[in-house]
Amino acid sequence: MPFFPASSALAWKAGAILTSTGIMSGAFGAHALAPRLGEKASTWTMASHYAIMNGVALLAISQHPVYSKRLAVPLIITGTTLFTGSIFALLLYREKCASLPFN
Fold this sequence. Notes:
InterPro entries: DUF423. Helices cover 69% and strands 0% of the residues. It contains 4 helices and no strands. The mean pLDDT is 85. Helix 1 runs antiparallel to helix 3 (41-62), helix 1 (8-31) packs parallel to helix 4 and helix 3 (41-62) runs antiparallel to helix 4. It is mostly helical. The chain starts with 7 loop residues before the first helix and ends in an 11-residue tail after the last helix. The radius of gyration is 15 Å and the shape is elongated. The protein has one domain.
């Protein structure tokens, strides 16, 4: 029995949300935030690509009868949200995050 049982529906919904969020954030970064980001625009694009790729992975996992019910789904969701979210936050709130060791 998995520690945190996931379902195919959860994987499908999370995959759709992550993929669409990645596409929207990529477009937002390329157009609206381009002047503000400057040379850091490639970092924003990388975070958007990670969200898209992990979303597509969740969509694929959701179609598998065994893997969609394992711990992989919540780990991918959590990891992608924390990783891409921290990159977006660091780029948007650069001044407030200046004292962080990983800035």
